[in-house]
Design brief:
Strand content: 15-25%
Number of helices: 14
Distance between the termini: 14 Å
Largest sheet: 4 strands, mixed
CATH class of the largest domain: Alpha Beta
CATH superfamily of the largest domain: Enolpyruvate transferase domain
Number of domains: 2
Structural class: alpha+beta
CATH topology of the largest domain: UDP-n-acetylglucosamine1-carboxyvinyl-transferase, Chain
Radius of gyration: 22 Å
Bound molecules: uridine-diphosphate-2(N-acetylglucosaminyl) butyric acid
Length: 439
């Protein structure tokens, strides 16, 4: 964590409304999983619209190349072929720095009979356990042990099973889905997550030769097959990047077009934007987002797809500091996803946190002490300040705060933003923001 790029930060002079056109990148939360799934075949797989510059994707490809994959990257194309798995123990430093490594359990067990995967740690948005992943893999017949640093998965072939998730976890659904492709018989995942990134993974697996049914009642049914083949696939556009820039444009009283944004993946966001008095227009090649009149407050709660996504919450909160009145946001996916609020108060934001479920039905955290509801008072004239980024989505929301604040802001910790957004400073600059990256 000591390379010079890790110390880079952004300096922003606020006040310019964002105007212009940008193109959204491929989705980090899809591309990384597709790369993992490609290890299910010895053949070559090709990905188009791959966000090759983002750090989380680079960590994923580094892990796979240490396991035996040959990877070539050119512009937005990524080719990967894993003829042989040469090692099934994932490097501790790399593997513990990402939530992706644990998804390699299925491909490694299938091809090597064993996988040693670093135990993923908690992070600043919550404890992020992987109990649902482990329980699911055990049900498929995997033997799972744990030492101080790694989970050790072993199996000589997996068997289909009925797996009911307590919570529609994105990662657990993906893990079980990938692992069950070669399991003998049928696997049924009930209460599965059905995020667009999961559907993208299913589409890719289908092209490779898998048989997967998606029911309307959150059930995913996988019929085991014997072999998968190489294929090519276009990564879906990143709906989180779209939501982030949409909020930035509206908060700055601007008007932008985001090329390649897909309406289907953003229905709840679009409804919410219209409800608060901002506007959007679905155009030929994307979606236009623009400020129309004073924003109205709202009560929302984050949820699994097709609800209001937890990754949209942070940019949305910054946008709502500019609304006329009191907005309530109830975070129901992660227990600690408001950790970024304290720093924003240095810029004058009026946001109070509560450990109760405000504005909605009681959630899983109802009887906990976690501060998972926020009351956002607006409109607030934010003032430039020096603040430190705690995580990826919060990082983007600090950039929005800098763009709409009066005066200069210094936003430390560009490394967090680089994990999930490509060329972020260049994109903001092209929309007219006065932002520069400095070491
Ligand atoms: N959970 C458990 N046990 C498990 C798995 C999850 O209790 O075994 C809990 C988590 O602690 C959390 C909730 O379930 O409270 C949701 O976790 P989920 O597994 O759905 O999330 P994830 O797979 O770890 C992905 C994205 C996140 C995104 C969430 C929700 C990736 C790499 N990450 O995480 O994205 O917020 O789904 O949609 O796909 C980001 O991109 O910044 C990011 C955090």
């Amino acid at each position: 964590m000591n390379s010079p790029e890790n110390n880079s930060r952004f300096i922003i002079k606020g006040g310019n409304p964002l105007r212009g056109t940008i193109k959204v990148a491929g989705a980090k939360n899809s591309a990384t999983k597709l790369i993992v799934a490609s290890l299910l075949t010895k053949d070559k797989c090709t990905f188009y619209n791959s966000p090759n510059k983002i750090k989380d994707l680079q960590v994923t490809t580094k892990i796979c190349s240490l396991l035996g994959s040959k990877i070539e990257v050119k512009d937005k194309v990524l080719e990967i072929q894993t003829k042989e798995i040469t090692n099934a123990c994932i490097n501790q430093e790399l593997g513990s720095s990402t939530r992706i490594a644990i998804l390699l359990a299925g491909p490694l067990v299938h091809r090597f009979g064993k996988a040693e995967i670093p135990i993923p740690g908690g992070c600043r948005i919550g404890s992020r356990p992987v109990n649902l992943h482990i329980d699911g893999l055990k049900k498929l017949g995997c033997n799972v042990q744990m030492n101080d640093t790694h989970y050790i998965f072993e199996a000589d072939g997996l068997k289909g099973a009925e797996i009911n998730l307590d919570f529609p976890s994105v990662g657990a659904t993906e893990n079980i889905l990938i692992a069950s492709i070669f399991a003998k018989g049928k696997t049924v995942i009930s209460n599965a997550a059905v995020e667009p990134e999961i559907i993208d993974l299913i589409k890719f697996l289908q092209k490779m030769g898998a048989i997967i049914e998606v029911r309307t009642d959150r059930k995913i049914i996988i019929e085991g097959v014997k072999r998968l083949y190489g294929t090519s696939h276009r990564v879906i556009p990143d709906r989180n990047e779209v939501a982030s820039f949409a909020c930035a444009a509206i908060a700055s009283k601007g008007d932008i077009i985001i090329e390649d944004a897909i309406q289907d993946d953003l229905i709840t966001l679009l409804n919410t934007i219209r409800r608060v008095g901002a506007e959007y227009q679905v155009v030929e090649n994307g979606i236009r987002f623009f400020y129309k009149c004073k924003l109205r407050p709202i009560a929302i709660e984050t949820s699994v797809h097709p609800g209001f996504m937890t990754d949209w919450q942070q940019p949305f909160v910054i946008m709502m500091t500019q609304a006329n009145g009191i907005t309530i946001v109830h975070e129901t996916v992660y227990e600690k996803r408001f950790g970024y609020v304290e720093e924003l108060k240095k810029m004058g934001a009026e946001i109070e946190l509560y450990n109760t479920c405000l504005g909605g039905l009681p959630c899983r955290f109802a009887s906990s002490q976690y501060y998972h509801s926020a009351v956002v008072k607006g409109p607030t004239k934010l003032k430039g300040a020096e603040i430190n980024i705690p995580d990826l989505r919060a990082g983007f929301s600090y950039l929005i705060a800098g763009v709409i604040a009066e005066g200069e802001s210094i936003i430390n910790g560009a490394v967090y933003i680089d994990r999930g957004y490509e060329d972020i400073d260049l994109k903001f600059q092209s929309l007219g923001a006065d932002i520069k990256r400095v070491q």
